[in-house]
């Protein structure tokens, strides 16, 4: 009996890895397993990355319902980012995108709209680009980073590096977790327990507060959108505790 169970689990993991996920993380597999116990929180919704109606399951410590796309493993915040990019820039005027922490599904989706996408993925050595010291042989019209800044010890250096790799008039779409009830960004916690407790994850080095706009004001960007509130109205960002800025060079 136990052997059968182990075999089923192994086949299940194999199917999840080979069919759906392009970075071999166990995270979506774990959440899909949790879904067995939270059936009511799983259901179909539109995925603009898959471009079809797909089953979405729970995600996050609070097990947010209908958040993780079963087909492409994108989160609703990834989908909101894609929507924001397509609504803001045209592939005719701003074709070249450097995308941090994206995946092949996101690349394919944007390329089908006419953009050219260069991916930087941390877990793939050949594709890894140090965000604090971006060395590329060309400049880009657009840089995107989703939930990366909270992992970087010197985030200001990363903002500067992005600024330097952008063409004049280029855009930087950046999202990160924030505590909108806190005024001051907290990066004082150094140990794993403190970071999990205060920043939500062991490898997060800070939780931004509403002073984030002050932190980056000297870099040279124009801030063209802050979402959620006061300018945006993307419900899903709020549910995901995500803050999205669109910065222009
Ligand atoms: Zn999808």
Report the top-level CATH class of the largest domain: Alpha Beta
* Biggest beta sheet summary: 6 strands, mixed
User: In what order do the strands lie side by side in the largest sheet?
Assistant: 5-4-6-7-9-8
Number of E strands: 9
Shape: globular
Backbone structural class: alpha/beta
The unique ligands bound to this protein are:
zinc ion
Uncertain regions: pLDDT < 50 for 5+ in a row?
Answer: 229-234
Average of pLDDT = 85
Radius of gyration over C-alpha positions, nearest whole angstrom: 19 Å
Order of helices and strands: HHEEEHEHEEHEHHEHE
Distance between the termini: 62 Å
- Overall tally of domains: 2
Can you characterise this structure?
The structure is a single chain. This protein has a six-stranded mixed sheet. It folds into two domains: 2-73, no CATH class; 77-248, Rossmann fold, CATH 3.40.50.150. The radius of gyration is 19 Å and the shape is globular. It contains eight helices and nine strands. The chain has helices spanning 2-20, 27-34, 76-88, 104-112, 155-165, 192-199, 212-215, 235-239; strands at residues 43-47, 52-59, 64-69, 96-100, 116-120, 140-146, 166-177, 222-227, 242-248. It is of the alpha/beta class and 249 residues long. A hairpin with a 4-residue loop joins strand 1 (43-47) and strand 2. The structure holds zinc ion. Zinc ion (ZN) binds at residues 47, 49-50, 54, 69, 71-72, 74.
């Amino acid at each position: 009996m136990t052997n059968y169970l182990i075999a089923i689990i192994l086949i299940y993991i194999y199917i999840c890895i080979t069919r759906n996920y392009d970075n071999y993380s166990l995270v979506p597999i774990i959440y899909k397993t949790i879904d067995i116990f939270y059936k009511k929180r799983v259901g179909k919704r539109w995925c603009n990355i898959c471009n079809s109606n797909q089953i979405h399951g729970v995600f996050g410590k609070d097990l947010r319902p209908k958040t993780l796309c079963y087909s492409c493993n994108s989160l609703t915040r990834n989908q909101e980012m894609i929507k924001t990019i397509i609504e803001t820039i045209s592939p005719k005027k701003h074709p070249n995108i450097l995308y941090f922490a994206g995946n092949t599904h996101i690349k394919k989706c944007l390329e089908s709209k006419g953009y050219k996408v260069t991916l930087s993925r941390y877990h793939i050595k050949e594709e890894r680009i140090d965000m604090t010291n971006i060395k590329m042989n060309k400049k880009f019209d657009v840089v995107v980073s989703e939930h990366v800044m909270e992992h970087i010890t010197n985030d200001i250096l990363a903002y500067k590096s992005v600024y330097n790799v952008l063409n004049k008039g280029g855009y930087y779409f950046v999202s990160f977790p924030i505590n909108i009830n806190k005024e001051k960004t907290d990066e004082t916690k150094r140990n794993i327990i403190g970071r999990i407790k205060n920043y939500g994850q062991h490898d997060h080095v800070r939780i931004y507060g509403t002073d984030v706009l002050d932190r980056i004001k000297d870099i040279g960007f124009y801030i063209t959108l802050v979402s959620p509130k006061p300018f945006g109205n993307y419900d899903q960002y709020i549910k995901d505790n995500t803050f999205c800025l669109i910065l222009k060079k």
